[in-house]
Design a protein that fits this description.
By secondary structure, this protein is of the alpha+beta class. It folds into three domains: 157 residues, Beta-Lactamase (2-Layer Sandwich), CATH 3.30.450; 87 residues, Signal transduction histidine kinase, dimerisation/phosphotransfer (DHp) domain (Helix Hairpins), CATH 1.10.287; 147 residues, Histidine kinase-like ATPase, C-terminal domain (Heat Shock Protein 90, 2-Layer Sandwich), CATH 3.30.565. Helices cover 54% and strands 18% of the residues. The protein has ten helices and twelve strands. The longest helix has 55 residues. The radius of gyration is 50 Å and the shape is rod-shaped.
Length: 469
């Protein structure tokens, strides 16, 4: 499963927020626990001091030497403890006696000596958490020369706070995480909006429109550096492509004149009646090669000018069906003497707004390819209107094109069968020119082919005219 950068940022933001939330909640909980615990411990220490002082100053003299006690001790100590702890959330248990015999005095919790664990008074002095009467208590055990005492306080507050905090977190945490996820998604979207805009602009930039640039980004962060760097790179590419286009135009222009002169000289030599037959055969082959080379130069010139936007396109209303019929008639003548049938289907009258010369060149290139690679069988031309489009299609039963070559068929100088193309005069520029002509008329060209069964090329063009009856 692939996650987008926005999704990953959202997930990381949510996780970071969740960790921070739990850390904050944990710290607060520990702080509350520590504060409540310290308060209870402090209160128990105060009670420890009070009991120790009370016994030492008021009741210690009442103890007999033998460790016994008198009625005054029993009554007064009970009263003092009851008065101190009665009706409170605290209790005290005092065990007066040395060695084996002990007398218990308590207040605030009836029968405290029976509720405490049997061995509790034998334990080491310290603070313990105990469950008494289904209530949680914190009990402090301490010893003095006159005996042992335990003072306790109800410890429910801490757990009540924890329980309430748990209930609150039960709805607060999901809500906070939901808010964090939504906020993270929004923040990631806002942060990546310049990236999306730049990506869409970069997607539209091609060798034909290298003058475009990524949208200006005025931030001084890493993305601003990236946009600036990419725009500089596009500028360098534009400069390089312009130089290459200019070189191609200059080279084609410089080659055109000597080729024209050479073609003229060859034609004159071929027409000379005194030229031997063997020489005439050689002259004919050479002339064919020069003519083919001239076509390549013309195609290069056209493509270079189209790339630079210098090629003049003159659009007018003209009868596209007439152009198709004329090329169809030429195709019939070229197919004579070959086991090849040429058909024109649905040649309805169609008026089209475009460059007539370029459209004729498009039709001628497509028909020339069909004728070149179809040794026998059928070639069918079809022109019709479909909704708001004009559709021209040409199908043949020729060699077909391998599936691995189809993605590159419109690339310049790409040849499916290089040896066959060279003998037939193909340069690998015909379909590239066709694609440019169609694009210049806001159309679409599609090619479907199956090896050994034939090829179909379909051109869809926008209909800006009315049907002519």
């Amino acid at each position: 499963m692939t996650f987008t950068i926005r999704s990953r940022l959202t997930i990381w933001f949510t996780l970071a927020f969740s960790v921070a939330l739990f850390l904050v909640v944990g710290v607060i909980a520990l702080k509350i626990y520590s504060q409540l615990d310290n308060e209870i411990r402090g209160a128990l220490r105060a009670e420890e001091n009070w009991i120790a002082t009370l016994v030492a100053h008021e009741f210690l003299d009442l103890l007999t030497v033998e460790g016994g006690e008198n009625d005054s001790l029993i009554v007064d100590l009970h009263e003092a403890l009851t008065e101190r702890y009665g009706g409170k959330r605290q209790f005290a248990l005092v065990a007066i006696g040395r060695d084996t015999g002990k007398t218990f005095f308590s207040g605030g919790l009836e029968n405290a000596e029976k509720l405490l664990p049997a061995d509790f008074l034998e334990r080491r002095a310290g603070t313990y958490n105990l469950l008494l009467h289904d209530d949680r208590h914190q009990v402090r055990l301490f010893r003095r020369d006159w005996g042992v005492a335990a003072v306790g306080a109800l410890n429910e507050t801490m757990f009540e706070v924890a329980e309430e905090a748990g209930k609150t977190l039960l709805w607060l945490v999901p809500l906070a995480m939901l808010a964090a996820t939504g906020g993270g998604w929004l923040m990631a979207k806002l942060a990546l909006r310049p990236v999306v805009t730049a990506a869409r602009t970069a997607e539209s930039i091609s060798p034909a429109n290298l003058s475009e640039r990524l949208p200006a980004y005025f931030g001084k962060d890493e993305f601003g550096v990236l946009v600036t760097t990419l725009n500089r790179m596009i500028a360098r590419l534009e400069e390089g492509v312009k130089r290459l286009q200019q070189f191609t135009q200059d080279a084609a222009h410089e080659l055109r004149t000597p080729l024209t002169v050479l073609r003229g000289d060859l034609e004159l030599a071929y027409q000379d009646e005194n030229t031997p037959e063997e020489t005439r055969v050689w002259l004919q082959k050479t002339l064919d090669r020069v003519i083919a080379l001239g076509k390549i130069v013309d195609n290069l010139m056209l493509l270079a000018r189209s790339d630079s936007g210098d090629y003049p396109i003159h659009k007018i209303f003209f009868r596209l069906d007439v152009a198709v019929r004329e090329i169809f008639e030429d195709l019939q003548i070229l197919a004579e003497g070959r086991p090849l049938a040429v058909h024109l289907q649905n040649g309805e009258a169609v008026e089209f707004f475009g460059d007539e010369l370029l459209m004729r060149r498009l039709l001628l290139n497509l028909c020339d390819n069909a004728l070149k690679y179809t040794a026998q069988g059928n070639i069918a031309l079809n022109l019709k209107k479909a909704d708001t489009k004009i559709v021209f299609a040409i199908s043949d039963t020729g060699n077909g094109i391998p599936a691995e070559d189809l993605p590159h068929i419109f690339d310049r100088f790409y040849r499916v069968d290089k040896s066959h193309s060279s003998t037939s005069g193909g340069s690998g520029l015909g379909l590239a020119i066709c694609q440019w002509i169609v694009a210049a008329h806001d159309g679409k060209i599609e090619l479907n082919s199956e090896l050994g069964k034939g090829t179909t090329v379909q051109v869809s063009l926008p209909d800006k005219s009315a049907h002519i009856g």
